[in-house]
Amino acid sequence: MINKCQQMLLTWSSYCITIWGWRKLLLSTGLGALSVLALPPINLFFVLFFTLPSLIWLLDGALETSLKAQADLKNKFIKRLFTKLYAARSAFLVGLTFGFGYFFVGLLWIGEAFLVEEKFIYLLPFAVTLMPLLLATFWGLACFFARVFWTSAIKNVLILTIFLSFFEYLRGHIFTGFPWNLLGFAFDFSTAMLQSASIWGVYGLTFMVILLSSAFSLLINTRFKFKTVASSLALIFFVIWAGGAIRLYYNPTQFHDDILLRLVQGNIAQKDKWRAEMRPVIANRYLELSARKLSAENLGLSKITHLIWPEAAMPFLLKPESSFMRQVTSLLNKDAYLITGATRRQGNGDSATFYNSILAFDSQGNQLGKYDKHHLVPFGEYLPYSNLLKKIGLNKLIPMEGEFSKGKKAANIYLKNTPPFAANICFEIIFSAKVVDRKYRPEWILNVTNDGWFGETIGPHQHLAQARMRAIEEGLPTVRVANTGYTAIFDPLGRKIAHLAKGKADVLDSQLPLKVEPTIFVILTSFL
Q1: Domain range enclosing 361
Q2: Are residues 38 and 116 in the same domain?
Q3: Long-range contacts made by residues 518-524, C-beta under 8 angstroms, separation at least 24?
């Protein structure tokens, strides 16, 4: 059986090495697309045991493409240099196409946002192709530099792991950063497998996933026994899982006895969100849901200490003196708070600035805390190079005059009788080591979001996985309140305490989990 399996791998590796031209690039694209199955919500991790070794074999074949072109060169140094550069160029194309397949399928959900309003439909083909192509460039460069240092067998596994991990880190940080679908999320199939993120974060997980998956390419190497390689890899996976399982066992979820949250998922369709006639409908829905009695024993808001609404819950400005705010605060008991995502205006007239914010109100309607989003979404909340792009007819997706202004930085909100919390809005939660104030560590993370832009695609699933990862890295419970889902609460080890189904208007009542001691990841990143 082992010999037959090894022979099949040898045949496949030989095919990957010798395939030529557009067929090679087409195969690379397909392998990248297939790799998405390893990520949430599908979580078929083992797919990477096939696709990443295949990438190594495709890179092995890059050397073959340079033989004819360098046949007439006489100088040995020039010949060797030409060979490396030609092979590296071929490797770049392999990495670029592999990455394009990966990001095209993995980010296809972005196109859904351009279907919300008909006027943006013409941009859809550009959004679903140009962005994956841009992100794939990082993979192309990783394969280019890896091929320059290419040698053989286990060294190649390490070389590819180092360069691909490094360029994935760059992808998450430069040009505003977009660390979506890092390969480390392939461990999301198991809470225990994710626990080492508390040591080295999602980029460390990415390194481990690439290393272990690409190491399956060693199964065809005659210098290593098949059983030895397979058992060694199985042992490493077991150690990672066992370490995580032990951490979970010795850290059971504990809760604040005096904090009871009510999370409201309004489930407002994005196409209805900003229609003027829908304003009273949306307002009444949130009032009804907030006051809802879930059972005969559940007395609505009577015991709730914190009522939390999602990002920009109301399609209008929240003014403390307004009749709507008086209605809301009249529902709260005297020591409770309303915490909500909201559009905030500062100033008046032409000098007014707008922020995508989280606001906190007491039961008297007084605004006691605020946070302004500091990592805005390009083309969504602001338009890069707006003077130029508006001339050619481009605009941002959110239908409001002007653009959102940028907040200062990650910050906590402090309320009486409330553990201080880090406020995050929408995709701010995807940035590892950037979601909390490193100087003043909070006790929990609040992420409000609106994934209604992305319908029934895999995007909201992937966004939820990001929130879970931040909980594990920071050792902080994470509360996620979404307009259309997924609304959920994770304890500081990433265990899902409670959640609401997607696409359903509902409320979720839960105690707030306690934090754990600062993780090794927190200690290490505090020096950055």
Answers
A1: 255-525
A2: yes
A3: 518/441, 518/475, 519/198, 519/199, 519/472, 519/473, 519/474, 519/475, 520/198, 520/199, 520/200, 521/197, 521/198, 521/199, 521/200, 521/201, 521/433, 521/473, 521/474, 522/441, 522/473, 522/474, 522/475, 524/200
